[in-house]
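Journal club prep, notes for RB
We'll compare a predicted complex against what the paper describes. Inputs for the norvaline case:
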Amino acid sequence: MKHLLKLADLSTEEIFSILNLADQLKYERKNGVPHPHLAGKKLGMIFTKSSTRTRVSFEVGMYELGGHALFLSDRDIQLGRGEPIKDTARVLSRYLDGIMIRTFDQQDVEDLAEYGSVPVINGLTDYCHPCQVLADLMTIREYKGSLKGLKLCFVGDGNNMANSLIVGGIKTGMKVSIACPDAYRPDAGVIAWAKENGELQITSDVLAAAEGADVLYTDVWASMGQESERQIREQAFKGFCIDDKVMAVADKEAMVLHCLPVHRGEEVTEKVFEAHAQEIFDEAENRLHAQKAVLCKLLK
Ligand code: CP
Ligand code: NVA
């Protein structure tokens, strides 16, 4: 494993190896066992979109591993003024041991890896969010004991989260169902891959998708960069909400997860969200542990 650009690039063994290391690092942190595996290493963190969890968990994660993280907003670096990604890649590779990037176009992340000479980690693009899904898989395994055979249901926009959940879910042996409006289906390439490699159901019927689900997952109706579509999307996604009716058809022990930030009363009701807050904030915490594991695998 040289980079983390998308989950499709990882084998099932590599995913479980990251999850196992994440569990170990979480245990060590809880018990005050230092783990400076990345002493002296430097991670650059390029952001062309906002972030709370990704930024803080990567920065704290590098600190706890004995290394250092630099926050590079496109408002400050020359990338934001048009310096090409392939030049940015070659310059930053001379200073840093790894680069994390959050941006719009997946191609920019792939180009950064191609032109640079250090490991690149995708901290979210319009196409996928692999770091989030590694934390999600870790959380599901913590609560359910194992992943194989579970039914994971995503309700909402066929966006970056849906794409990564399909790939991560199927690679770890879960059955995946997606409830989305017809005009907002996940990436066609991801759907085609999933149909060849596992069980994927796509429907616009939320209750059919949620039937017997062990994990219900949702995300905002309008992602970063889609702010101007808010009104159209509010209409299109009406009813794509995890509420009591959805909970009633899912498994009695079903978990509810959300990558956050959440829009209460849109993709999930306040009541369902708060009833599952423990799981959701464990999930947010697990970003730290899962990413520390990724950093160790790539930068050590
Ligand atoms: N879930 C997630 O990636 O959160 P941030 O946008 O706050 O990083
Ligand atoms: N789909 C959301 C996820 C945020 C973590 C977005 O891209 O804005």
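Talking point for the session: The mean pLDDT is 98.
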